[in-house]
Design a protein that fits this description.
- The chain is mostly beta strands.
- The chain has one domain: Porin (Beta Barrel), CATH 2.40.160.
- The chain is 5% helix and 55% strand.
- It is built from 1 helix and 16 strands.
- Strand 10 and strand 11 form a beta hairpin.
Amino acid sequence: MTISAASPLMIVALAAVNPAVAAPPLDLSADLSVVSNYLWRGTSQTDDGPAVQGGLELGHDSGFYIGTWASNVDFESGANYELDIYMGFDFTLPDEAASLGVNTIYYAYPDDDGSIDFWEIGLSGGYDFFSAGIQYTVWGDKDNEDALFDQGDLYYYAGLDFELPYELGLGIQLGYYDFTNDRVEVDELGNTRSANYWHWGVSISREAGEFGTFSFNYEQNDGRSEIWDNDPKFWIGWNKSF
């Protein structure tokens, strides 16, 4: 998501000058992460290398929020970093264990030698330890009209989150990517394969107070090896919210 990298910095500056800006009903938060591999929907965005990530979010007690998030990446196309901008609304429901929200997110790769940005809208919900959602690609800025991550792509996901003894957390995830241009040429003879794939993962996390949250994670996809790296991925992560 990229509107302007200066926008969140202006928010921070205003908050420093006038603390009331960040006081209720507004809340400004930030997070910082270090991961040994940046996995997104079951595929590595860093060629199995580490990443440093962070973001800023401004929320309103009505349920509206807007934010930005960035990470280094390593793409064959030449992109070295991702800059996202997002917003959404979480509805207030009679049952506090239930959740329902809408969102939109713009994925930008400003230093790419070809344009690969794309934009999604989504719907999510859940109850207690279960959550699920769907993301729809509204627009993709691809030179090739038959490329992946283009208008019409659908991504479905579901997850389970449990609290374990000793302040441990267990997360289980499942997702499916349904590309509108799902046939991808894989060799010089013009043979094609479907790019659609399932992915799944398990995460064990541990909160450490002021030291943040540490996690150990496993993820894998069942995509065709000619298109996706479907080897199992094990990675560790650290996250701190402010």
